[in-house]
Amino acid sequence: MAIWLTQNSKIIVQGITGSEGSKHTRRMLKAGAKVVGGTNPRKAGTTVDFDGVELPVFATVAEAMAATGANVTVIFVPPAGTKSAVIEAIDAEIPLAVVITEGVPIHDSTEFWAYALSKGGKTRIIGPNCPGIASPGASNAGIIPADITSAGRIGLVSKSGTLTYQLMYELRDIGFSTAVGIGGDPVIGTTHIDALEAFQADPDTEAIVMIGEIGGDAEERAAAYIEEHVTKPVVAYVAGFTAPEGKTMGHAGAIVSGSAGTAQAKKEALEKVGVRVGKTPSETARLMREVMRSR
Questions:
Q1: What is residue 216's predicted lDDT score, i.e. its pLDDT?
Q2: Same domain, yes or no, for 251 and 159?
Q3: DSSP E strands, 24-173
Q4: Longest alpha-carbon distance in the chain
Q5: pTM
Q6: Is residue 140 part of a domain?
Q7: Could you tell me if 156 and 282 lie in one domain?
């Protein structure tokens, strides 16, 4: 089992002919993902060869879905065109849109997120500025390396791409049901809480790793949700324990003002509801090992 992305998922790539889109399409195919085509309005009707696999290029997401049965799109479109690409995916009612693009204006993210809600929330958006979603041994949609872990019983949700990879690697012998990189921008389509809810409902996910970072109150809200709704063990890591007050960090959402949004405040909120919090990624992995050994 996995959440949102399974071995039956059929993936298209918006921006399949661009340098990033083509590079990662090739990677996804090598990982065993069922990539069935892509879009580029200027090159519609052509095909792209990926080491002997010929994939069709369509003008729109709706056309690609009608021809291939696709139910996932991965968006590798430059920031200026990302809003239009996401809105096109929403209009086509594709169930899952994974927005990899970094540097999307916050106003644009807010606009396409509100548009998705106005259309009934039929399209789940992951990202923007995220590594995507991977269900090891089943499928891979985005840029998460496919060879760093195995299929297993841990669910992972993370704001950070690189920390996603590190935890997946450190716990590779136990393995993961699904890893979701939600992105670190102030406005994102899928939150920690969304992933926690899905992992709680997944019978094959036994424990959850949650990676947060300084800034905002997403981790505190996740703690409140865990207290009320999550019965599976959760282990967490909050990046930024050494960040100076008032410093804007690498991710757009990570700014600390006084005690609000600090790693320590988030750690305390999570520990208060029974979540074990590591001070480093390696300590977090060790805590998860202890949890899994006790099950």
A1: 82
A2: yes
A3: 34-39, 47-50, 53-58, 72-75, 96-99, 124-126, 132-135, 139-142, 151-158
A4: 56
A5: 0.94
A6: no
A7: yes
